[in-house]
Amino acid sequence: MVGAERVGGEMARVEHGGKGGKKEMEEEEEEEEELGFEEMGLDPQLLRALRKRKLAEPTPIQVKAIPLILEGKDVVARAKTGSGKTLSYLLPLLHKLLAAAALGGSSSSTGLRALVLVPTRELCQQVYQEITSLLEHCGGTLRVIQLATTMSPATLKSAMARIPDILVATPARIAECITHNALIPSSLQTSLSTLVLDEADLLFSYGYEEDLRNLSVHVPRSCQCLLMSATSCPDVDKLKKLVLHNPVTLTLAEIDGSADGSIVPKSVQQFSLECSLRDKLLYALSLFKYELIQKKALVFVNTIDGGFRLKLFLEQFGIKSAVLNGELPQNSRQHILQQFNLGLFEYLIATDDGKSHHSTGKDEDDSGNAGTVPGMQAGKKLSKKVLTDTEFGVVRGIDFKNVRTVLNFDMPFTVEGYIHRIGRTGRAGNAGIAISLVSPQDEDLVTQIKEELSGDAEGQGQSKAVIAPFPLLTSTAVEALRYRTEDVMRGVTKLVVREARAKELRIEILNSERLKAHFEENPTDLELLKHDKVLSKVHPSAHLKTIPDYLRDPATEAASHAVNLARAAMGLTQSSYIQRRKKNKRPRTDSGPPNAFSLNSKWRKDLKRGARSVRGKAPVSTHTGKKHKRRKR
Ligand SMILES: Nc1ncnc2c1ncn2[C@@H]1O[C@H](COP(=O)(O)OP(=O)(O)OP(=O)(O)O)[C@@H](O)[C@H]1O
């Protein structure tokens, strides 16, 4: 049976799979009062942890999924990026394990209870942190292990010597555990009560199909299986068939109250800027220099060399950024993510994982030198060939904190890639902006994205432009920076890029182990090793840091002014961390920035006239995220 229910003002489509049963859909009003976390009957220690994190109301996916999982149903949850899927399975999972522990059941006697499988090491770490934060008040009742790092068989065995209650890992690490006898698969038959497949749409494309098939035969029939994904694809169906039994499928259409069925959260405004491939640096510079990129920003590029090229280019203009890619040691990657989330630097250039187009996981640069570390000579301490980590993934599932803007410097390879990338902003109902630099080569993909996203809305009776042309940057503003751009571009040669990349890698590898030990003990020292340091040999010239008056374009200036007024009105001029350090007080609760690009008609007129200054108040539209009202019939 299939039903559509209203959840927190949203339409939730619920499908109950039955053996051979034909699915149908019907709409019905919620009969009973919607449940808050308390009413769900969750363990008081978990509720305390939620209160501490100021998570007052469940999100729509949590409203639907938690009771079903508590009831013991197998659940397939397909909900948008940033909609809170992680807590929707962790809360009931932990509740059940705590309840069992209270009755005297523990892993030491029964073996592994819960297994959470994720596609990347980064997600592994994130889910593990989420669990430990939720268990903060549980006094060590449950034992949790994450297998995010590659370990020697001996270390693996010793880590698993005492079987945990909960294991978080990629499928490859589980296969390793089984191969090295660190986990006896037959023991799962009697112990495993919950299996979670998080970011399920990616598990096969990351190459884990065989590992999952091998594992599936050891999953007992009684084990509750939960499958979470943001997008749907044939792989999700294959996985569903492999491990789930008669699942309830939850398809939540929207997080912020509308029911148009669109895949992308409403809180993300999408824009495109058309330019040639060669002009991408020029357009990016213009966006940064006119402060049209709201901080913090995540910039996506498709190759590691491309990432370093952009970093080296921007730093000549006084714009500092860090680069994150799968070639870096895992500790460094973790550290970069931590620093960015804390707000220690504001621009992060991320090299997309290539799994979305089923690549080998190697970085393919223009010279065809896939995966080699440029500038690194044989015979040096580091091996010449360093491949990117195939279990690295920055786009999918990572919960970047307070990212206001996602800039697609390079377009991704697939529509799914686009959805996941822009889903790094606008999380949990906060507002976000996605800007894509679209070259003629990207046109087919953009058409596909537009069709898929607007078709999605159209299917529900609403057709609209999903990606609007970016309104605030004039060609005059861009052209004014062309000469400077081309001058600096000439200095950022392939050789310079390769040297910088090799230098960065050497430093990060050396720092990697030191980082791990030191920062575990001294987390407040995080600031000492900033990842956005200047890499160029040529010191940036002071005159490039600002745009001189004669080059400034009044119209774009007015737009920038408008955006910044709106931001200032929300107290968002600097990252929360920097603000906190300056004012020495706690950061404000994040309610999202104003919708800075929704300029009212007066502002638009000012912009057209090229007014030098904009009078009046900023058009602030506060977006606090959806408040889920309790509704009685
Ligand atoms: N009930 C809640 N109220 C407010 N914020 C929440 C709530 N539940 C989760 N969040 C926050 O929402 C953010 C996104 O959650 P989460 O990472 O689980 O999203 P997701 O649906 O798994 O996204 P993705 O598909 O991108 O992985 C996190 O920062 C999380 O702490």
TrEMBL record:
Catalytic activity field: ATP + H2O = ADP + phosphate + H(+)
Compositionally biased intervals (Acidic residues): 26-38
InterPro entries: DEAD/DEAH_box_helicase_dom, DEAD_box_RNA_helicase, Helicase_ATP-bd, Helicase_C-like, P-loop_NTPase, RNA_helicase_DEAD_Q_motif
The protein's enzyme class: hydrolase
Domain named Helicase ATP-binding: residues: 66-250
Highest taxon, organism lineage: Eukaryota
Compositionally biased region (Basic residues): 605-615, 624-633
Comp. bias intervals (Basic and acidic residues): 12-25
The keyword Nucleotide-binding appears for this protein: yes
Domain DEAD-box RNA helicase Q: 35-63
Motif (Q motif): 35-63
UniProt domain Helicase C-terminal: residue ranges: 286-478
SUPFAM superfamilies documented for this protein: P-loop containing nucleoside triphosphate hydrolases
Listed EC numbers: 3.6.4.13
Claim: ATP-binding is one of the keywords in the record: yes
Region (Disordered): 1-38, 355-375, 574-633
Key words of the record: ATP-binding, Helicase, Hydrolase, Nucleotide-binding, RNA-binding
Family named by the database record: Belongs to the DEAD box helicase family. DDX56/DBP9 subfamily.
The protein, known as: RNA helicase
